[in-house]
């Protein structure tokens, strides 16, 4: 139940909440010795939006994510998350920020000796410091149900397929209800059917939890399923932006190369 907040300022449009920018990047530059990786990255991620980043391997997609969570400092440019400049945050502020951001690692990175239930309890007890077992059980079961794996609750990761492990990894990330999700190549290494399932799950999770997400991929099916908006990266910049359908019609060579791979 959400109260409709009284419009204090009559000038403010009703869509303010929807158009809220959660990540703002302007002119981001990151270089390593003799290697200018990000030259001029500019984008806004809006609340509730799925933004897909397409880019060749080694183009700096993961570096962008490291900047967002403050693991890397840009050499130049502005990067604010929830309105706060990441480069200016102290350790405590970074810790707070990272609690609001979920990652999906390529491997899923589950603890092999723990059951699915225990893997999911871990962030609740260690990160959120919950100790009400009833609340913990409820959240574990709810999130597992969301990824379609309630039946696997007492299994060990080694009893699960790669796709199932990925889904548990996603559930473990979502259980703390992050406001932003960063997916770094979520379907890499999975077969086409499982890739599709994971992509659909990413879309469902966006709808269910209203998270804002950046999805890095070169899987065009994943992009088609999950994206509200796609940006294409080349030589340290975003060179094109649009919906899947819009970009499909592009005559830019780099943009075309992504679409041609799948047709
Ligand atoms: N910590 C680092 N030190 C030096 N070079 C790095 C570092 N991290 C990434 N790079 C380089 O930056 C480039 C982009 O890397 P990355 O963001 O991982 O690419 P991708 O688009 O495949 O995710 C690569 O050339 C990589 O070698
Ligand atoms: Mg990468």
TrEMBL record:
Q: Does the keyword Protein biosynthesis apply?
A: no
InterPro entries assigned: AAA+_ATPase, ABC_transporter-like_ATP-bd, ABC_transporter-like_CS, P-loop_NTPase
By its UniProt entry, which SMART domains does this protein fall under? Answer: AAA
Task: For this UniProt record, give its keywords in alphabetical order, as a comma-separated list.
Answer: ATP-binding, Nucleotide-binding, Transport
Domain annotation ABC transporter: ranges: 23-260
Instruction: Enumerate the GO terms in the molecular function aspect.
Output: ATP binding
Protein name, UniProt field: Phospholipid/cholesterol/gamma-HCH transport system ATP-binding protein
Q: Which organism is it from?
A: Mucilaginibacter lappiensis
């Amino acid at each position: 139940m959400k109260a409709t907040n009284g419009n204090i300022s009559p000038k403010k449009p009703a869509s303010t909440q929807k158009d809220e920018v959660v990540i703002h990047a302007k002119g981001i530059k990151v270089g390593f010795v003799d290697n200018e990786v990000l030259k001029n990255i500019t984008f806004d991620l809006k609340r509730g939006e799925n933004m897909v980043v397409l880019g060749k391997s080694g183009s700096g997609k993961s570096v962008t994510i490291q900047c967002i969570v403050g693991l890397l400092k840009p050499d130049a440019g502005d990067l604010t998350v929830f309105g706060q400049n990441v480069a200016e945050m102290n350790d405590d502020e970074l810790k707070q920020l990272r609690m609001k951001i979920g990652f999906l690692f390529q491997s899923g990175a589950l603890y092999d000796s723990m059951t699915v239930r225990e893997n999911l309890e871990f962030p609740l007890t260690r990160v959120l410091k919950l100790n009400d077992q009833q609340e913990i059980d409820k959240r574990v079961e709810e999130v597992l149900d969301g990824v379609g794996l309630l039946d696997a609750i007492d299994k060990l990761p080694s009893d699960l397929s790669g796709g199932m492990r990925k889904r548990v990894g996603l559930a473990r990330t979502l259980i703390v209800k992050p406001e932003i999700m960063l997916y770094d190549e979520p379907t890499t290494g999975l077969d086409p059917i499982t890739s599709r399932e994971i992509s659909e799950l990413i879309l469902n999770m966006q709808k269910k939890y209203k998270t804002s997400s950046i999805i890095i991929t070169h899987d065009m099916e994943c992009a088609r399923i999950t994206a509200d908006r796609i940006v294409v990266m080349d030589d340290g910049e975003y060179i094109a932006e649009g919906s899947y359908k819009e970009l499909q019609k592009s005559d830019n060579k780099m943009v075309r190369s992504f679409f041609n791979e799948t047709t």
